C-alpha cells in the first residue's frame, strides 16, 4: 500500500485519497484554498463610508451594494454591517439621513466626506480590488466547471470508500490527474 506521505507528495497536501487505513480529503471545506478575509482592518468601514457618501442608504441596501460590487462573490452579514455603521455614526463620519422611512438610512457628514477626500487613493484601490473579485470568479466559476470538478471528486470519493483502491490503481489515478493538469496548463 502507498503510504499517505507518498500520496500527499504526488498530489499535494490538500488532496489525499482513502482506502483501508488512508484518509480522503480535498483540503479545506468547500475544496481548494482556504478563504481569505474580504476586508482588512478598517476597509469595510471605508467602503460603507464611500457608499453612503455616494447616496443615502440603509443597511440592507449597503449589503446589496457590496454584493453587486463584488459581482456576487461576497455579501456581508447584517452582523458585520450594522456595528460598522454604528461605529461610523459614533465617529461623526455618517448621520441618519432626513426622512420618515421606516428603515434607518445614513448619509456622509462633512467630516466623512473630508476623510474620503484625504484617502481617495486608498478608496479607489479598495473599490478596484473589490470589483476584481467578480471578474476573478467569472474566470473559473462556471456551472460546467463545478459539474466537472464535482464529477471527478465524486468518482474518487466513491472509489476510495469502496475499499477497492490498491497501490497500482492509486498510481494510475495519480498519473491520470497529473497528465490532465499538464494538458490544462498547456491550453
UniProtKB/TrEMBL annotation:
Q: Domain Transcription regulator PadR N-terminal spans what residues?
A: 48-118
Q: Which Pfam families match?
A: PadR
Q: Which SUPFAM superfamilies match?
A: Winged helix' DNA-binding domain (SSF46785)
Highest taxon, organism lineage: Bacteria
UniProt cross-references to Gene3D superfamilies, sorted A to Z: Winged helix-like DNA-binding domain superfamily/Winged helix DNA-binding domain
Q: Which PANTHER family match?
A: TRANSCRIPTIONAL REGULATOR YQJI
Protein name as annotated: PadR family transcriptional regulator
Record the organism: Erythrobacter aureus
Amino acid at each position: 500500500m502507498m503510504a499517505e506521505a507518498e500520496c500527499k507528495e504526488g498530489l499535494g497536501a490538500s488532496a489525499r485519497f482513502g482506502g483501508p487505513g488512508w484518509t480522503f480529503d480535498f483540503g479545506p471545506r468547500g475544496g481548494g484554498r482556504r478563504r481569505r478575509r474580504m476586508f482588512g482592518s478598517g476597509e469595510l468601514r471605508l467602503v460603507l463610508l464611500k457608499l453612503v457618501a455616494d447616496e443615502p442608504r440603509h443597511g440592507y441596501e449597503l449589503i446589496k451594494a457590496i454584493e453587486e460590487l463584488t459581482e456576487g462573490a461576497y455579501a456581508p452579514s447584517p452582523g458585520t454591517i450594522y456595528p460598522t455603521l454604528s461605529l461610523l455614526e459614533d465617529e461623526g463620519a455618517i448621520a441618519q439621513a432626513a426622512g420618515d422611512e421606516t428603515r434607518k438610512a445614513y448619509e456622509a457628514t462633512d467630516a466623512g466626506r473630508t476623510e474620503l477626500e484625504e484617502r481617495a487613493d486608498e478608496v479607489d484601490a479598495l473599490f478596484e480590488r473589490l470589483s476584481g473579485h467578480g471578474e476573478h470568479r467569472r474566470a473559473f466559476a462556471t456551472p460546467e466547471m463545478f459539474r466537472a470538478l464535482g464529477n471527478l471528486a465524486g468518482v474518487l470519493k466513491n472509489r476510495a470508500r469502496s475499499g477497492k483502491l490498491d497501490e497500482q490503481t492509486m498510481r494510475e489515478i495519480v498519473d491520470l490527474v497529473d497528465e490532465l493538469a499538464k494538458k490544462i496548463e498547456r491550453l
